[in-house]
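Subject: for your reference before the review

Hello V.,

The reviewers asked for a structural picture of the protein, and I figured it would be easier to keep everything in one thread rather than splitting it across files. Below is the amino acid sequence we used in the manuscript, unchanged from the supplementary table.
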Amino acid sequence: MDLQLFLLPFFFLSLVNAQLRFNFYNSTCPNAESIIKSAVTNRSNTDPSITAALLRMHFHDCFVRGCDASILIDSTTKHKSEKDAGANQSVRGFELIDEVKTALEKECSNIVSCADIVTIATRDAIALSGGPAYAVPTGRRDGRTSNPNEVNLPGPTLSVLQAFSFFQAKGFTLKEMVTLLGAHTVGVAHCLFFRDRLFNFRGTQKPDPSMDPDLVSKLQRQCGRNNLPIATDPTAFLDQNTNSTVDNEFYNQVLKGKGILLIDHNLGADNSTVGFVKQFGGDANGFLQDFKAVMVKMGSLNVLVGNAGEIRKNCRVFNATPKPSKGK
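And here is what came back from the structure prediction:
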């Protein structure tokens, strides 16, 4: 491969990152980040699962068109949005973003983007759940396109090689992929995404022998055999130990055969990634430091800056396009 061609995307990524900056709203909306943190704190106090919800929303947004808040757009009778894509059917937390946007519009109208709200809210939720506190550069603008046909995200049953093809295309290394999947330290998965591992792994009519047998028995009772609509399908924690805390325990659970998603199990079984899983499992602080770095990197994917995109008044709706004035 031509080295110049290989480096070109990363040159442009660095160029875009330079246009994001820390304390972007200091002069235009100095209370922006404190308003966001207050709303996230209040929600986290009553719903600790909001951290997982925001992490998923942020990832599902950034890995499609980039971090442009396109996932927040509601579908209409004429135009379907990313929310209609199958992978996004269980994404949640939108009402928190609405709450924050309403407060910010009262404080400083038409200043803070929905894309920055998602990024900052996710950062704050991570810290509130025991993860690292860190600064994020801001200045993102909101996109004007949201198309369900563009949603192509790594699924829960992929091999390491298959999953890495998605992450590599976004400029992430294999270690960074393992780090980002550490977001499974919090949250749940619907049983439909792993039920085959409990009852009929690869057509054997038996459970996956690599999964901890006690966990299999527990999940069999919890999930049942029958697939259900996602709205009523049971869920199970992705981290069987510290499921509401952002820490490194997820990796230790994977090494014990307690990763419930096949992709999580594969991280600990594949020779190319098991070393990273063991490294993070044995180094809590090392994981947290790498996690915050990769979250900042993800939050900078294909961002719109400067005069690109828009600052939405309502995160669920594109701003109205001004009608051209009629000539006299």
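For the response letter, the relevant points are probably these. Confidence is low (pLDDT under 50) at residues 1-16. The chain has two domains: 15-152, 160-295.

Happy to draft the paragraph if you're swamped.

O.
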